Fold this sequence. Notes:
By secondary structure, the chain is mainly alpha-helical. The protein is 60% helix and 0% strand.
Amino acid sequence: xxKFRFFPNRMEDYSAHADVSVDKERWLSxxxxxxxxxxEYIRGEKSTDGGLYVGSIGVAYMLCYASEFEPLHDRKMVxxxxxxxxxxxxxxxxxxHRPRDSDRTSFVLGEAGLNAVGLYLGSMTKxxxxxxxNLDQYLSLHKTFLHLNMRCGSDELFVGRAGYLCxxxxxxxxxxxxxxxxxxxxxxxxxxxxxxxxxxxGRSLAAKIRSPTPLMYSYYDTLYLxxxxxxxxxLQMALQHKTFIEKHPMEAAWVKDSVDWLxxxxxxxxxxAPAMDELSSPxxxxxELVHWCHGAPGVIxxxxxxxxxxxxxxxxxxxxxxxxxxxQKGLLNKGPGICHGIxxxxxxxxxxxxxxxxxxxxxxxxxxxxxxxxxxxxxxxRTPDNPYSLYxxxxxxxxxxxxxxxxxxxxxxxxxxxxxx
Length: 421
Ligand SMILES: [Zn+2]
């Protein structure tokens, strides 16, 4: 028997028109015990490496998120105090050790992510000076991103422009109407400029390599297609700013043509190849990646955003195909996280539920949550290297379980395609 990257899905699928009930008490108690376990760990060890992705600041993000969740309001102050400790620890570290440029600017891996969480924490604790200090720091990176020219590639999500935009959208959403109009104006103009720089860069590479798409990007010389370092999340961040699409029709058409090209390479099973070079030599089914980072569970956010912007059924149909693929092959044995784990794939169904209101998807999300409690998963799944982290570990699982209980608001962390900014 070949060893697959996923457990076979033997769970019962949704039967038409059945009612779906999510056992609130059960999941709430699970959420509380997971957070208690994470807190015990984080009090002893706060990693400053790995940023939001696998560092302790990603856990602080989860604690802020949990403290916003009404059924956990009795623990709100405990969670926010813990988040504040983690934030201060990370801030002191960055203040003491002047980080290298890429560590300072990276949203997912570096100090930009710390600034975004600091602002979130400041907003949750009504600490205006914390909000403004972190906002200033985040905005001070704008010029660097405008002219960023890293050898590895300057546009993708983890260290490049797409990540910076991802953080700006998150920040704008938190600030809402609280901030002065001139700050909002500055943000909007700043976003347009970064998207334009990202598009110039994609045009230039596409021309150089004779890409079939008007826009193409590379990261360490690989033409990735998925959410982690690839084309899909870069295009998604361009589409997230609706006024850009309205103001820049030519650039918007390049983005749309690139999205439409992605539709042509969606595999019959609904998945997407991780990178361009794998289109001509696809992986065997055993090695296929059905992860948020690489594959349909990450590309779906772009397709959903395209559907919300252009309202064409083809995008929704492609999303539904992603969902079928994830149902078949998404019970990953790499663990419970959101990057390449079951919670990340469960988020696909919460997205589809928000898009369609079809209870089938909420049911499937619940089944994925259930699977993480089975003996099969507990005994055979791998323990990630960073088991408490946001992207690889339990902090991400907690976000997913909270969203399972509030599906009308559910959104993969920092990937809320429903936010119109
Ligand atoms: Zn991953």
